[in-house]
Each structure stands twice: as structure tokens, then as C-alpha cells.
Amino acid sequence: MNRIILIGNGFDFAHGLKTSYNDFIDYFWDKMRKKLKKKKDINIIMKMK
User: Fold this and answer.
1) Number of C-alpha atoms within 13 angstroms, CB side, residue 10?
2) Please, what sign has the CA dihedral across residues 41, 43, 47, 49?
3) Mean pLDDT across 42-49
4) CA atoms within 13 A on the CB side of 32
5) How do residues 1-21 score in pLDDT, each as one tens digit?
6) What pLDDT is recorded for position 10?
7) What whole-number distance in Å separates Cα of residue 40 and Cα of residue 30?
8) Confidence of residue 49 (pLDDT cuts 50, 70, 90)
9) Long-range CB contacts (< 8 A, 24+ apart) of 1-4?
10) Distances, alpha carbon 28 to alpha carbons 9, 10, 22, in Å
11) Taking CA 30 as the corner, what is the angle to CA 5 and CA 44, rounded to the nearest 5 degrees?
12) Are 15 and 22 in contact (CB under 8 A)?
């Protein structure tokens, strides 16, 4: 059986750092949306030429 054990001391949360799993997922999907929008914008520009 595989196991993952996460241990932390709360230092990051105590200092207001956005290091939770939800913060990571939000950051990841925000970056993906921006990349896809940029790619879509580039494709539209290329079609105009």
C-alpha cells in the first residue's frame, strides 16, 4: 500500500502565505486559463493575416 504523509508546522499559514492545496489549484487553473486565452488570441491574430 502506498501512503503519503504530510507534516507541517503552520509557519506558512501563520504568516499569511497562500500555500494551501486550494491556493495551488486556484493558481494552476488561473495560469492555464491565461495560457489558453493567449493561445486563442494568437490564433485569431494569425487568421487575420
Assistant:
1) 1
2) positive
3) 73
4) 6
5) 889 877 777 888 888 888 889
6) 84
7) 15
8) low
9) none
10) 24, 22, 10
11) 145
12) no
Q: What is the rounded CA–CA span in Å between residue 49 and residue 43?
A: 10
Joined grid coordinates for residue 2: 502506498
Distance CA 13, CA 23 (A): 12
- Which three cell numbers, joined as nine digits, stand for 36? 489558453
Q: What is the pTM of this model?
A: 0.59
* Cα(31)–Cα(29) distance, integer angstroms: 5
What percent of the chain lies above the pLDDT cut of 70?
98
What's the full length of the chain, in residues?
A: 49
Query: CA 27, CA 25: separation in Å to the nearest integer?
Result: 5
